[in-house]
DNA sequence: TCCGCTTTTTGCGAAATGGCAAACTCGGAT
DNA sequence: ATCCGAGTTTGCCATTTCGCAAAAAGCGGA
């Protein structure tokens, strides 16, 4: 018998919102805890989708790799997010690889439990629909940016998104609170690390950002925002 | 009292799959029929999401317009698809404009009925989740293509997608069964109508496609597929 | 403290694509 | 049958972005 988990662990996750205490307990009953050292893959692209997860602590990146080895960052997973719900969308395997970018902690459930959870608590299905709907809108936002914006604005938008997801206020500005490389940013914006480097070096000179290896601080979010929106 | 609609109208739509006859009747009870002349907008980007729809006949395109007037084709709606379900994803307004590209026929429901439908038939929520999940995967496919492929391959992929959605076999090849302009294809692939024109002119010379104004015929789907996949 | 490896920067030339302008071509309306 | 206009093609040049190569700079571990 696994150790008893407290309801407070999941009660505030948006996906479990509005569920009764009994239902939450039933869900927790089936959960196992998963410790994820930095660099660990939680699941691999193409592997059977045997489990789904909720992130309690840490940060993951979800990456798709093309046949010729190019990588695309699909999204970042923040605490409170669920991920790996391929099966709920009737996929049998994971469409991407999820990797811990810092040491992380997640809950895991066997995919087979999903239907039971839904049956027990239909509100869960509506919450999941909302969650996936939000991701769909985010994806459309990215498609719009990739289709209509040049590189500099795309990088600006990506950075602002990181600020919202993982920004931590410091004296110098807003720190992206997990390691991010130029390569990562390139894979988020459909460009190359070289171009990202050039863009960010220019911004650094203008005092918009400050960065060292794997670390990015946005010093002037407002000017960055203006730059991201300027339609020219 | 609206005219009685037959269950067979919606029984085979994937979203209503596995619903009981009684539930289907209850759903149909609330539906109204909407005739959509070519060029009509079913709803406009930014308008309150008061209704959702199922397409019975015809074809729509869903378009997002940026602040500076550029357009992006989000997707095409085919018979059997539901669309305008912004409200189910907890959005209050439509994120895009849906326009009939040929004369079309749709069922419409007030958005407020969605929750009642779900409560009555929870399987509907799971079906909707699957539908939105599929769209999310499609969106990720496009993001991957926009991020990693050059224009020619993106156009090839877009064309192959149109073949799958609306291909009709003819003597000369597979006809895309609704009007498509170079501009449309450009808005599906994040490029310009000029570049699309150049690409397709080259393909025409190679015998891959044949096209006249607003009409595209894929003469050699296999070679087009090879071209779309070739990782160089 | 020094070494080694990853990450970042930078220069330079090439290639892809965009932007503009103009001509052209159909198809449908009058 | 003719005209009009949306849609398409094409040439030319500008610009963005990539790709390759090499150097520089940090960071972490030995």
Q: How many whole angstroms does the radius of gyration of chain A measure?
A: 19 Å
Helix content of chain A: 40-55%
Give the helices and strands of chain A as they follow along the chain. Answer: HHEEEEEEHHHEEHHEEH
Strand content of chain A: 25-35%
The tally of strands of chain A reads 10
Shape of chain A: elongated
Mean pLDDT of chain A: 95
| Measured distance between first and last alpha carbons of chain A | 61 Å
The tally of helices of chain A reads 8
The largest contact between protein chains, plus residue counts on each side, is:
A-B, 42 and 42 residues
Structural class of chain A: alpha+beta
Multimeric status of the protein: homodimer
What can you see in these coordinates?
The structure is a homodimer of 232-residue chains. The first copy, chain A, has 232 residues and is α+β, with helices and mostly antiparallel strands. Chain A is 40% helix and 26% strand. The first copy, chain A, contains 8 helices and 10 strands. Chain A has helices spanning 8-11, 21-29, 113-120, 123-148, 151-166, 182-189, 193-205, 221-229, and strands at 32-36, 41-43, 51-65, 71-77, 82-83, 97-110, 167-169, 174-176, 209-212, 215-218. In chain A, the strands form 2 sheets. In chain A, strands 1, 2, 3, 4, 5 and 6 form a 6-stranded antiparallel sheet that branches. In chain A, a hairpin with a 2-residue loop joins strand 9 (209-212) and strand 10 (215-218). In chain A, helix 5 (151-166) crosses helix 6 (182-189), helix 5 (151-166) packs across helix 8 and helix 6 (182-189) packs across helix 7. The longest helix of chain A is centred in the middle third of the chain and has 26 residues, at 123-148. The N and C termini of chain A lie far apart (61 Å). Chains A and B meet through helix 3 and helix 4 of A and helix 3 and helix 4 of B. The structure holds a DNA duplex (30 and 30 nucleotides).
